[in-house]
């Protein structure tokens, strides 16, 4: 595949941290016929105190080296947060280590979550934005040295009173940093949920992100914020339609074909479906087929322009 969207695939299923399931999880992605894979490296015990554990890295490299994905990306820490005042120095140490992992494993992209914080007394949102932007620029310089790219993912509000950038504000951050080794990552379900929560126009938020987006997370939902959080099984949340469900395409109500018929992204964008085989192995082949058609909508339009 070539064009604006150059590869389509899945994330792997993150294991218990001891690398025991890594091979099987990568094989499951490869067996779908996907040409891209995103490894949830955050879930493996491979970094300690900001330092790479060399023996573990060698094991990961040996496992990952068995597979010939056209595009490999690493998902950084779920708790990654450059608005974390107290732990910012630790956060940056981990990102530095993650970027080294990208280099040594042949991954061209590191996924990094957009920041969040509770505003302290006398503090403004701009203070947090500036902190994040300065850290992103510093880490993008590190990424440049490795020839990789950080992609900043839009997340949704998770706590009362939390400061969290909207998707369009994430795009503004990427534009403000203005670094060739930083791009935005559109998580469509996250954008849907945050737009519902804040009363925003979902499609307008996507339009703001698309021109600076170089990585996509695709999975379905109904865009319903977490009006309840206690579920005894993921299927209960699915039944209610509440939250970030990571459903197969078509199970929610995101208008995928309409969206991909309109938007375009940065060249060499990867589309990753966060639709896990642990729940939806039977649905993955159909999702892959549909996602490739979505990519074709973007690429065909770009070629005709």
Can you characterise this structure?
The protein has 305 residues and is of the alpha/beta class. It has one domain (5-304): Divalent-metal-dependent TIM barrel enzymes (TIM Barrel). Helices cover 43% and strands 17% of the residues. It contains 11 helices and 12 strands. It has helices at residues 22-31, 54-64, 88-105, 125-146, 167-177, 188-198, 202-209, 234-240, 256-262, 277-280, 284-304; strands at residues 5-11, 36-39, 47-48, 51-52, 71-75, 109-113, 116-118, 149-153, 162-164, 182-187, 213-218, 269-273. The strands form 3 sheets. Strands 1-2-5-6-8-10-11-12 form an 8-stranded parallel beta barrel, surrounded by 6 helices. A two-stranded antiparallel ribbon has the order 3-4. It has a two-stranded antiparallel ribbon with strand order 7-9. The model has no long low-confidence stretch (mean pLDDT 97).
């Amino acid at each position: 595949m070539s064009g604006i969207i150059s590869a389509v695939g899945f994330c792997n299923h993150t294991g218990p941290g001891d690398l025991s399931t890594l091979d099987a999880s990568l094989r499951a992605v490869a067996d779908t016929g996907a040409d891209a894979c995103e490894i949830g490296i955050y879930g493996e015990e491979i970094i300690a105190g900001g330092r790479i554990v060399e023996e573990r890295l060698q094991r990961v490299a040996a496992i990952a080296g068995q597979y010939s994905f056209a595009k490999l990306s690493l998902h950084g820490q779920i708790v990654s947060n450059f608005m974390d005042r107290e732990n910012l120095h630790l956060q940056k140490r981990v990102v530095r280590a993650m970027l080294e992992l990208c280099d040594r494993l042949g991954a061209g992209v590191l996924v990094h979550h957009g920041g969040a914080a509770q505003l302290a007394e006398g503090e403004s949102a701009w203070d947090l934005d500036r902190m994040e932007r300065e850290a992103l620029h510093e880490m993008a310089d590190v990424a440049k040295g490795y020839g990789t790219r950080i992609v900043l993912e839009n997340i949704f509000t998770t706590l009362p009173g939390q400061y969290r950038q909207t998707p369009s504000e994430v795009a503004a951050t990427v534009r403000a940093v203005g670094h060739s080794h930083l791009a935005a990552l559109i998580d469509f379900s996250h954008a849907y949920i945050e737009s519902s929560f804040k009363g925003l126009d979902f499609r307008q938020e996507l339009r703001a992100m698309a021109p600076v987006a170089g990585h996509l997370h695709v999975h379905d939902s109904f865009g319903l914020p977490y009006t309840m959080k206690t579920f005894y099984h993921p299927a209960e949340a699915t039944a209610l339609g509440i939250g970030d469900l990571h459903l197969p395409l078509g199970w929610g109500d995101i208008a995928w074909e309409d969206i991909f018929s309109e938007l375009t992204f940065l060249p060499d964008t990867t589309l990753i479906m966060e639709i896990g085989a642990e729940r939806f192995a039977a649905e993955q082949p159909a999702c892959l087929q549909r996602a490739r058609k979505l990519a074709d909508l973007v690429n065909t339009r770009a070629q005709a322009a």
